[in-house]
Amino acid sequence: MKYISLLGATGSVGMQTLDVIKNNPESFQLVAFSAGKNIELTKKIVAEFKPFLVSVSDKKDYLMLKQEFPGISFSYGQEGLVEVSVYHKADILVNAVLGSVGLQPTLKAIEAMKTIAIANKETLVTAGHLVMDAANKNNVAILPVDSEHSAIYQCLQGEYEKNIERLIITASGGSFRDLTRADLQHVTLQDALKHPNWSMGAKITIDSATMMNKGLEVIEAHWLFSLAYDKIDVLLHKESIIHSMVEFQDSSVMAQLGSPDMRVPIQYALTYPDRLPMHSAQRLDLASIGKLHFQEMDLDRFRCLAFAYEAGRLGGTLPTVLNAANEIAVAKFLSGEISFLQIEELIEKAISNHQNIANPSLDVIQAIDLETRKRVSTLL
After folding, report:
1. What is the pTM of this model?
2. What pLDDT, on the 0 to 100 scale, is given for residue 135?
3. How large is the C-alpha radius of gyration of the chain?
4. What is the pLDDT of residue 174?
5. What pLDDT, in 10s, does the model give residues 173-227?
6. What is the structure's pLDDT at 201?
7. In the predicted model, what is the mean pLDDT of residues 21-47?
8. Which residues make Cβ contacts (< 8 Å) with residue 113, sequence separation at least 6?
9. I need a labelling partner for 307 at 20 to 30 A (CA). Which of 75, 87, 145, 209 fits?
10. 184 CB contacts (<8 Å, ≥6 apart)?
11. Domain segments of the chain: what residues?
12. How many angstroms from the chain centroid is the CA of residue 217?
């Protein structure tokens, strides 16, 4: 039995994590979780899984839940996220929150010697050097949950790091993969939210459409697998069947394939180094698929991916600025305040005007993150 703490239970990855736990009651137990402001769903999760500790965003919800479920401990805010992440009964922390809010709880969980199953890209993007240094120092495993990084992780089992030639991260292309930049002038929010392959939350779906999601994954892969950016490629693959590949120095290429279903990499992270049956997953039938398509990425067309490579290579506080600017810009697009192409305009302004700081501390990262959010909001 593995005991699970879950950050971001009411989000897309969080709900699919709960599905994996529910389908394997002999293997997993949810002991603590955090949620945001979806209190009705939070109540259902509490009633079904009966955890020991629950954290929510707002104090008023915390007080209400405390009255309704007197046998369970509750908390709220950033302190609540940390309490869930270090909960003493948990073996594994699944970090499935959105945004850089997941950074501090992850660092605290590493200090508490918890295994980390990471689905929160922003934690490694904003402070990858701090997270990986802490994980190495405390001998804590960082297990990737993203399908692309899980694919690479699986391909590398039993292999020597010195033999890796390059990583090939696949990208579906998102909602607008077949549109020109001229076409993008007139796209709507509803258009952007229609991902062709995956069922994801709104923010990640927009990131997929801009290709920033893939850019964040490149930076994340750099930290997870200790490889230079020149050895990390992105390949457009519309079917999302090959989730990523690894090329070795002898020219062999290993790939991990499967139908698009986030529960598969989530379950692999929770069961690693073992595997469990997944009867609810759609089995891959290559004969019926017939063909797989691949295409080189156009960095002029997908400018956010180019921004991410630039920020990753320069390092320092620039990835923090990239991520913070993107979070604010996407939020403004989701609320109807800006157009789709203005997302990348705001990000470009933020990174162009930033004075980079090398090897930033956690305090510096948090200060730059806050400053960038304020500055991008004023650019509107």
Report:
1. 0.94
2. 98
3. 20
4. 85
5. 888 988 989 999 989 888 888 876 655 678 888 999 999 999 999 999 999 999 9
6. 75
7. 97
8. 138, 140
9. 145
10. 176, 340, 341
11. 2-144, 149-314
12. 8
Identify the helix (H) or strand (E) that includes residue 347: helix 340-352
Separation of alpha carbons 243 and 36, rounded Å? 30
Other beta carbons less than 10 A from residue 330's beta carbon: 25
Supply 205's token pair. Answer: 């779906």
pLDDT band at 167; cut points 50, 70, 90? very high
Angle between helices 103-111 and 362-379 (to 10 degrees): 170
Q: Which residue has the tokens 């698929």?
A: 289
Strand partners, 7: 95
Return the axis-axis angle of helices 39-49 and 59-68, rounded to nearest 10°.
Answer: 40
Contacts of 7 (CB under 8 A, 6+ apart): 14, 33, 34, 81, 84, 85, 93, 94, 95, 96, 97, 102, 105, 120
Amino acid at 201: G
Contact criterion met (CB below 8 Å) for 246 and 170: no
**Predicted local confidence at residue 192, as pLDDT:** 86
d(Cα 17, Cα 265) in Å, to the nearest integer?
10
> Judging by beta carbons within 10 Å of its beta carbon (0-12, 13-18, 19+), is residue 101 exposed, middle or buried?
buried
- Is the domain spanning 2-144 CATH 3.40.605.10? The answer is no
Q: What is the DSSP letter of 162?
A: G
Position 103, amino acid: L
- Phi, psi of 140, rounded to the nearest 5 degrees: -105, 135
Q: Render 84-95 in DSSP notation, one character per residue.
A: HHT-TT-SEEEE
The sign one gets for the Cα dihedral 293, 298, 303, 308 is positive
- Scanning the structure block, which residue is given the tokens 């934690």? 123
Nearest-angstrom CA–CA distance, 219 and 332: 24
Contact 323, 231 (CB under 8 A): no
pLDDT tens, 152-165? 999 999 999 999 99
Q: Mean pLDDT throughout 370-374?
A: 96
